[in-house]
Specification:
Protein name: Phosphoinositide-3-kinase regulatory subunit 6
Radius of gyration: 28 Å
Largest sheet: 6 strands, antiparallel, barrel
Structural class: alpha+beta
Pfam family, one: PI3K_1B_p101
GO cellular component, one term: phosphatidylinositol 3-kinase complex, class IB
Oligomer: single chain
Strand order of the largest sheet: 10-13-14-15-17-16
InterPro entries: PIK3R5/6 (IPR019522)
GO molecular function, one term: 1-phosphatidylinositol-3-kinase regulator activity
């Protein structure tokens, strides 16, 4: 994206803008641009490194998220100054999975697109755009890039770039050995192996002269430097038909690594072992089985399927109505695994907080525990509207549930999640037209919120999401060219520079049906919950069409519901309240409409109600129960997803979702101590809530 540039000119422009007091909101976008340019620049003078490092330290005096971003980049600039070209080295080796003897880290980007939003033609174009660079990727050429960039970054004007480039192009088998020598030399100047910078430079100078002499190139003491490209990371595109496909791809990623045999010998990863119960705190009861034992005889859920081109079907992903076979015995987690999972919870969430706390969370955790090093990093990019985010939250919870019982993926893979909001096209809209409140018309509410709190996210990612639906119309019929990969370039920039997460609460819901023989369903949602009484809505519409200018009878004003909830306040005090009213539906949103609203609460809005019936038009709560005393039934839809729609519902219970890691620690403590309901020891520092972290460029900018 950005080639060789005059770094001093870039920093001068950045410094002028940064000194302006009215440009604080532009500090992080400008700093991201500067750091990304410095990563690709082949040589940067030492004084420029120092100026950027000093400026990043000055950001530590500012509030979040500026101090967090400044601390991160200050550490990178300090390491880069000690070993010029280090960031480029590690980035290329990890992203391209280059074999070497010094850096075992591997990264891969997985792009998952929701087929409810992406048509077949659009998916084909996007897949070609994202994966096209694989046709141009050559391990030897990447090794040459690392050697060329490292030597130029360290030697500067003492290196003649064109001669070095010609010499490396003539090499084939020797390139890998020179790569390992360069990495070994640079590694000695960093970390615990830190040595004299002059000695490191002298060794790199000797390697440079050796490369030129072995290829019989003439020695030029100084000259111009060659531009070294920064290729996009290795990415794969998937049309996301099944939730568990994410974790299957991660398992394949681990198997393909250099340590796959030792990792997979003792235990393999099968999605059939995933638990089918969502609530980790609920007791389990034995139920007599009446099925034939044949999978085709097991009936599915009530929701209808949607047919798509190519013969594939989007099926509802509700597992409660289906029996699943799980073999083997249930293994209890070891103390080591439980403590490791507990440490992950502490790293991700920081100190404990009540479910009703009015607090927004963004940026890095406040915990000072050292984070466990993992050799694999999986960057999951989800494309779609709020339905795709809901599926991601559900899949993430399934994984967390499984890992709480037997850790596998979380011990090896560092998960980072990204989101590109893409609105559905009219041609792919659901055929079922539902009359829902106007607040649900925004099918990318979560993406709109991220764009509101992070202007750089709005400028780059939200803009990309608006352009993606037009790719199928504007794309050419020829083969993709490396210089035309616009979507891949923006995604690469996002996954590299978007390192500040915004945490969204995941909420748990238990659904009770009017048919008492049907077991309650336990689910999760992250953006939206819709409650609808379709019979009353249709009756109201018919009455208005036939009878005009007449007061509507009370029985047609809506179903009678009983609503009880815990009201939260800034003082973190919970007050239990309740009331009854008639309504035709309710909209429960977990995404704030503006920056001042809290991100950890639900906003409940009832439709077709008079203000005098309730004291508050909008209710803010984290826990509530809704039921119909007159046995009327209603429908429930989660995250605006037709695949997660439940009918003939009698009552629901909603509460913040609990982290399985917290219950692991609590259950271990209760075995050895009396009074297990109280939080003691390390458990009192753990957050009970379970959140979905979505990476952005700056987190939340107030």
């Amino acid at each position: 994206m950005i080639g060789w540039i005059d770094s001093k000119h870039v920093f001068s422009c950045f410094h002028i803008q940064a000194e302006r007091t009215d440009c604080k909101n532009h500090l992080i976008p400008l700093l991201n641009t500067l750091i990304y340019a410095m990563m690709q620049t082949v040589y940067i003078p030492d004084d420029l490194y120092k100026r950027v490092y000093d400026f990043c330290k000055r950001l530590l005096t500012l509030p979040q998220p500026y101090c967090t971003v400044g601390l991160s980049y200050a550490g990178q600039m300090k390491a880069e100054r000690l070993a010029p070209g280090l960031l480029y080295q590690k980035m290329i080796i990890a992203e391209q999975n280059l074999k070497n003897e010094h850096y075992p880290q591997q990264e891969r980007v997985f792009v998952f697109a929701d087929p409810a939003v992406f048509s077949e033609s659009l998916s084909t174009v996007l897949k070609a755009d994202i994966e096209a660079q694989g046709m141009f990727r050559n391990p030897l050429s990447l090794m040459r890039c690392v050697v060329q960039h490292s030597l130029q970054a360290a030697l500067g004007e003492d290196c003649h770039g064109p001669s070095l480039n010609d010499a490396l192009q003539e090499m084939d088998q020797d390139v890998e050995s020179y790569l390992n020598e360069v990495l070994a030399t640079v590694d000695q100047s960093t970390g615990s192996n830190r040595g004299d910078r002059g000695q490191t430079r002298q060794k790199l100078q000797e390697l440079y002269l050796q490369i030129l002499s072995n290829t019989k190139k003439g020695l030029l003491s100084s000259g111009s430097l060659c531009d070294v490209p920064l290729p996009n990371p290795e990415m794969s595109f998937h049309l996301w038909w099944e939730e568990e496909e994410i974790w299957r791809e991660l398992a394949k990623f681990i198997r393909s690594g250099s340590f796959s045999e030792s990792l997979m010998s003792s235990e393999d990863f099968y999605m059939s072992y995933l638990p089918t119960d969502l609530n980790s705190d609920m007791p389990r009861y034995s139920v007599m089985s009446t099925d034939s034992g044949i999978e085709r005889d097991i009936q599915g859920t009530e929701a209808s399927d949607m047919e798509f081109p190519g013969g594939k079907t989007l099926k509802p992903e509700i597992t409660s109505g289906r029996l699943s076979r799980r073999g083997g015995i249930k293994l209890k987690p070891s103390v080591t695994e439980s403590m490791a999972l507990m440490q992950d919870v502490l790293e991700e969430t920081g100190t404990a907080g009540s479910s009703g706390t009015l607090q927004r969370r963004a940026g890095n955790s406040s915990t000072t525990l050292p984070k466990e090093e993992r050799d694999y990093t999986a960057k999951i990019v989800v494309m779609g509207d709020d339905r795709a985010v809901g599926r991601l939250a559900r899949a993430y919870y399934w994984l967390r549930k499984r890992e709480a019982r037997r850790r596998f993926l979380t011990t090896k893979v560092n998960l980072q999640m990204y989101y590109i909001p893409v609105a559905r096209q009219s041609s792919t809209a659901s055929p079922v037209k539902e009359n829902v409140p106007s607040t649900s018309n925004n099918f990318c509410a979560l993406g709109s919120y991220l764009g509101m709190v992070d202007p750089w996210y709005d400028c780059n990612i939200c803009s990309l999401g608006q352009m993606i639906p037009d790719l199928a119309k504007t794309s050419g019929t020829g083969k993709p060219q490396e210089s035309d990969l616009f979507s891949a370039d923006v995604i690469s920039y996002y996954v590299r520079m978007g390192q500040q997460p915004v945490y969204f609460n995941i909420f748990y819901i238990k659904i009770y049906f009017s048919n008492k023989s049907k077991e309650p369903v336990e689910e999760v949602f992250v953006t939206d919950l819709e409650v609808d009484f379709p019979e009353f809505r249709m009756a109201q519409a018919a009455y208005k069409d036939t009878v005009k200018q007449k007061k509507m009878p009370a029985e047609l004003c809506g179903a009678l519901i009983s609503f009880s909830y815990l009201k939260v306040s800034l003082s973190n005090r919970e007050v239990e309240k309740g009331f009854s009213l008639r309504t035709t539906g309710a909209q429960i949103s977990a995404i704030p409409q503006n920056k001042t609203e809290d991100l950890n609460c639900l906003t409940v809005t009832f439709s077709d109600t008079k203000p005098k019936n309730i004291t508050e038009t909008k209710i803010r709560t984290c826990n509530f129960k809704l039921k119909t005393p007159d046995k009327s039934t209603f429908t429930v839809r989660l995250d605006k997803d037709f695949r997660r729609k439940f009918m003939n519902v009698e009552s629901i219970e909603v509460a913040p979702c609990r982290d399985p890691g917290y219950y692991i620690q609590k259950s271990l403590k209760s075995k050895f101590m009396a009074g297990g309901d109280s939080d003691t020891g390390l458990s009192k520092y753990m957050s009970k809530g379970f959140t979905l972290p979505i990476n952005t460029f700056a987190g939340i900018i107030d």
